[in-house]
Write a sequence for this structure.
């Protein structure tokens, strides 16, 4: 794989919220951006619109989406839903490429890190998805470099 300089977005897709992270143009460090609420009903698609806006805003060269896998490394039951959502993202951000990256244990490790930093469970809800997105993107960056 040839390294292309530029920012990348990391995405942790949940059933209620979507965590977003971004890296610096050199791909050294992932940082949290925001948490986007999943849209349903009348607001359907607003989450996809926001992700597309962030891709444009950060001039992302790629989007990395966390893919749920079980401890054995097989895709978990949630992987189909994430892939379906990823397909919708791809349609909105083309020609920016989208890749999937193993997200095993990212939410659990993000939750532990926030707890050990003294963040309450109630406060953590608003940032846990961002922290998981950071873990996904940082893992991909470390793997790709």
């Amino acid at each position: 794989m040839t390294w292309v300089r530029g920012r990348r977005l990391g995405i942790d897709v949940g059933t209620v919220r979507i965590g977003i992270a971004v890296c610096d143009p050199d791909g050294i460090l992932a940082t949290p951006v925001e948490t986007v609420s999943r849209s349903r009903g009348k607001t359907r698609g607003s989450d996809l619109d926001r992700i597309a806006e962030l891709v444009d805003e950060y001039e992302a060269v790629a989007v990395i989406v966390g893919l749920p896998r079980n401890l054995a490394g097989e895709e978990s039951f949630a992987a189909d839903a994430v892939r379906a959502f990823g397909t919708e993202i791809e349609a909105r951000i083309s020609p920016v490429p989208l890749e999937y990256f193993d997200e095993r244990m990212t939410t659990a490790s993000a939750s532990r890190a926030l707890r050990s930093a003294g963040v309450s469970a109630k406060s953590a809800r608003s940032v846990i998805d961002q922290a998981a997105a950071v873990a996904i993107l940082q893992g991909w960056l470390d793997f790709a470099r």
